[in-house]
Design brief:
7 strands; 42% strand
């Protein structure tokens, strides 16, 4: 039996992942999943499109890779104001910032493509 795979899309920055996580759910930010392989840290968000006829129900994983990630961080904080957009990794939330929780995975998910 062939294992199902998700479509994976690499984004340019951690800020892109933060914006996706915040905009994908109207009530609360989606969690960002993180796993590590060697010196690289992967951050990813999963989306399922329900209205696009060719991608109906197909999971799409947006991901970003950093050579060195902050492993103690529990949140991606995002703030947009008159000064612009700021995105930071943090081990705690801050007033006035949107906190996106990070879920650490023990290993690469089986549906995620090899690098």
């Amino acid at each position: 039996m062939e294992e199902e795979r998700a479509i994976s899309v690499r984004v340019q920055s951690l800020s892109d992942i933060a914006r996706l996580a915040v905009s994908a759910s109207p009530m609360a930010p989606m969690p960002v999943y993180r796993f590590r392989e060697g010196s690289r840290t992967f951050y990813m968000v999963q989306a399922v499109y329900k209205d696009y006829y060719k991608l109906y129900g197909l999971p799409i994983v947006y991901y970003h890779v950093q050579e060195e990630g902050e492993e103690r961080a529990k949140y991606i904080l995002i703030k947009v104001d008159e000064a612009g957009e700021r995105v930071e990794l943090s081990d705690r939330t801050r007033p006035g910032w949107i906190a996106v929780p990070i879920v650490n995975l023990a290993e690469r998910p089986s549906f995620f493509p090899e690098a």
